[in-house]
Amino acid sequence: MKWKLLACLVVALLPGRSPAAQEASAPERLKLVCWNVLYGFNHGKAVEEGESWLREQRPQVVALQELNGFTPATLQETGEAYGHPHSALQKESGFAMGLTSTAPIEVIERRVEGVHHGYLHART
User: Fold this and answer.
1) Which of 1, 7, 3 is nearest to 118 (CA)?
2) Which of 84, 89, 99, 105 is most exposed by smallest CB count within 10 Å?
3) Taking the model in full, what pTM does it have?
């Protein structure tokens, strides 16, 4: 059996605190969108529609898969269109993944060797 993993996002609990205690002290919830945008928003034909939908959703973090044809500059421009001044792209060819955020992004690792499409490990 062959498995494909497009993206994995994990939100860790704060050490030593129960989930209920963390929730009670949290001023707001994180809104995250994880979206496979089908060959770079349908080969670039639906970028504006995607930007519009993301603007309406108002997420703090967006993880995108299949960013075919995107460069770091085009991902930055797309993110800015829906209010995300920070972005990181995994690679510039093939089925790339990217992350945009309202907060700064620290890229920990970009991996393309030894895994099917690769992965992007980042913190925001």
Assistant:
1) 7
2) 105
3) 0.77
